[in-house]
From TrEMBL:
Family per record: Belongs to the LysR transcriptional regulatory family.
InterPro entries referenced in this protein's UniProt entry, alphabetically: LysR_HTH_N, LysR_subst-bd, WH-like_DNA-bd_sf, WH_DNA-bd_sf
Record protein name field: LysR family transcriptional regulator
Keywords: DNA-binding, Transcription, Transcription regulation
């Protein structure tokens, strides 16, 4: 019993006419008749009642037809699934990563993805803080990470929430504020806060304190670093502080973090273009959802900038 025989049988069962079935399958009526006769001989089933005027299914033929329609549908789905997996396994995926992301969990996401698609190539590239969505829209990224407050809802982009981060003040362990259980913005009066890159736009987009708000409470905002890594060094040296959203369990070597109470937590989301739901993109997002459904390792540095 071949797939082609089943296709011929289904065509005749639905058309109830051998000539119409032949036209539907772009072949000849004798070729259809041959395939049906071969199928009946092989299965031992009498599938059709045939006269010079009409063709109709027998009771056995009707039962066989219903099951074969379902089976061939499953067969097409299985073929499409296998083709999608093969295409995904040969694909290239570009993922944007923010500075000082949760590298531990991200690496486990990447490892699981590579386990599922061992031949896929994943490029991890820096994500732009100034225009975070443009890299997705332009096709530079297949997947990116965003704050829920960093964007307005976009019907062309699909956002999936992963976890939430509260704002913290990063400082040297010897700072006079390092022993505080929590801080208000006004408590930072007289302190220096270092900014880096698109720091002001970034914090404002995430509904965090802007440089203007910091200046209004008496914070010195004159210190600037060309990179966030440089800002971290200044914090470790004790020459400045910084304000970032991060997990309460985050441990940053050489730096103390104290919760900032004036601003609500922000939700971190993973995003991809909605119009191109590639299997590998969907799989990566699903793995990320599963990984972040479990508690984080408190030994990991889990800050997203």
């Amino acid at each position: 019993m071949t797939i082609y025989q089943l296709e011929c049988f289904i065509a005749v069962a639905e058309e109830l006419n051998f000539s119409a079935a032949a036209e539907r399958l772009f072949t000849t009526q004798p070729a259809i008749t041959y395939q049906i006769n071969a199928l009946e001989k092989e299965t031992g089933l009498h599938l059709f009642e045939r006269t010079t005027r009409r063709t109709k299914l027998t009771a056995a033929g009707q039962s066989f037809y219903l099951d074969m329609v379902q089976m061939t549908s499953f067969g097409r789905q299985a073929l499409k699934k296998a083709q999608d997996i093969q295409e995904a396994d040969r694909s290239r995926l570009t993922v944007g990563l923010r500075q000082l992301f949760d590298y531990g969990t991200f690496s486990s996401i990447l490892a699981e993805f590579q386990h599922q698609f061992p031949n896929a190539c994943v490029d991890v590239v820096p994500q732009d803080n100034r225009r975070p969505l443009e890299q997705l829209r332009s096709g530079q990224l297949d997947i990116g990470f965003f704050y829920a407050t960093e964007h307005s809802r976009d019907r062309d982009i699909s956002f999936t929430p992963l976890f939430s981060l509260g704002y913290h003040v990063l400082m040297n362990p010897n700072s006079p504020l390092a022993d505080r259980r929590a801080l208000h913005l006004a408590d930072l009066k007289g302190q220096s806060v270092v900014s880096s890159g698109a720091f002001d736009n970034f914090l404002s987009a995430c509904q965090g304190p802007s440089l203007e708000q910091l200046a209004q409470v008496g914070v010195d905002c004159s210190k600037i670093s060309p990179s966030f890594e440089g800002a971290l060094i200044m914090i470790q040296m004790g020459t400045a502080m910084s304000i970032v959203p991060c997990l309460s369990t985050a441990v940053i070597p050489g730096i103390v973090k104290v919760p900032l109470l004036d601003f609500p937590p922000v939700t971190v989301e993973i995003a991809a273009m909605r119009h191109a739901p590639r299997l590998e993109v969907q799989s990566f997002i699903e793995i990320a959802k599963q990984k972040y459904a479990h508690p984080h390792d408190p030994l990991l540095m889990e800050t997203l900038i």
